[in-house]
Amino acid sequence: MKSSAAELVSAGPAAGPGYGNLPLTALTALTPITWGTTYVVTTELLPPGHPVFAGLLRALPAGLIALAFTRMLPQGSWWWKAATLGVLYIGLPFPLLFLAAEHLPGGVAATLAAAQPLAVALLAVPVLRESLSAWRLGWGLIGVVGVGLVVIGPSAALDTVGVVAGVASAASMALGLTLTKRWGRPPEIGPTAFAGWQLTAGGLFLLPITFLVEGAPPAIDANAALGYLWMGLVGGLFAYVVWFRGIGVLPVASVAVLVLLSPLVAAILGAVLLGQTLGPIQLTGFALALAAIVAGQLPAPAVSPLTSKGTTR
User: Fold this and answer.
1) Contact assessment for residue 51 and residue 42, using Cβ atoms and an 8 Å cutoff
2) Most buried of the four, 7, 30, 54, 104, by CB within 10 Å?
3) Could you tell me the sign of the dihedral formed by the alpha carbons of 94, 99, 102, 104, in that order?
4) Residue 305, helix vs strand vs coil
């Protein structure tokens, strides 16, 4: 594989597995913060009725741009690994999230998506051979409760199809995150090329689904073009490059809990731009979710493992 200087985000020096890498954690947090803009961009800029098409444009053009910049393709087993991760991160979660949104109130769907840290804590046991940590499970549950208090309204209702789709979406992304930590990435491949492989794979997976489910693409006006550009370049290319850079260095549990920022940002933007209100219950939820995010960056206490002696992250 050829090396390239066209990395949009440098891989930088390899950091150790310590927990004081605040700059990299803050940089990685930009990804779920960016994903938190998806709701307001979708409702205010994009044409209605084409959510899977939006997911396609978020992934495939960004992936092709990354490949054009880096001029690096997978080699050997990385063809199927990149395809697997692309489907788990992008190809499956996007349609599953949209299915959940069709059957559930938005707050319920967002709360199910926030269960990803819990799924990562469980998957880390068989995939990464880590001990099951009560610390991770406890703060993951607190984070879900906090997000639920922020985004679930009094009219929330449950639907079996929607709940299964929401849980499956969170599980798919959690498995992708855990496998990324297990497999790493080839040493000569930077995060831009790595993101490009997966964005392209996920976009190609979504391509036939988009036209089978939604038919012809919608008309794209100036607002829609701006929204799609934001989703593709910022929510797709930039966000995933930063995400994979963080995954390569930070502990998997620390990265997973950052996804709680996404529904919190969506709620803030809803209050600021759309006039939605945040009362005492929502503010309490904010505090709980933020506490879970902070706790997720700290080393687990020595008494936390449930399945073996000692501690692991």
Assistant:
1) yes
2) 54
3) negative
4) strand
Question: Distances in Å between the alpha carbon of 44 and those of 39, 41, 236, 275?
Answer: 8, 5, 19, 13
Q: How far is CA 4 from the centre of its chain?
A: 27
Identity of residue 198: Q
Residue labelled with tokens 């092709």: 64
Closest to 115 measured CA to CA, from 80, 70, 81, 165: 165
Compute how many other C-beta atoms are within 10 angstroms of the C-beta atom of residue 18: 9
What number of CA atoms fall less than 13 Å from residue 80's CA on the CB side? 2
Nearest Cα neighbor of 72 from 188, 163, 221 is 188
The whole-angstrom separation of Cα 286 and Cα 294 is 12
Contact predicate 304/135, CB 8 Å: yes
Q: How far apart are CA 58 and CA 77, in angstroms?
A: 26
| CA dist., res. 134 & res. 252, Å (int) | 16
pLDDT tens, the chain, 313 aa long: 444 333 444 334 344 444 457 889 999 999 999 988 887 888 889 888 888 898 899 999 999 999 999 999 999 999 999 999 999 988 998 888 777 766 766 566 677 778 888 888 888 888 888 887 788 888 889 988 988 888 776 655 667 787 888 888 889 999 999 999 999 999 889 999 999 999 999 999 999 999 998 898 999 999 999 999 999 999 899 999 999 999 888 888 888 899 889 888 888 888 888 777 778 888 898 899 999 999 888 877 765 445 444 444 4
143: nearest Cα among 300, 313, 290: 290
Compute φ and ψ for 190, nearest 5 degrees. Answer: -85, 175
- Backbone dihedral angles phi then psi of residue 133, each to the nearest 5 degrees: -105, 120
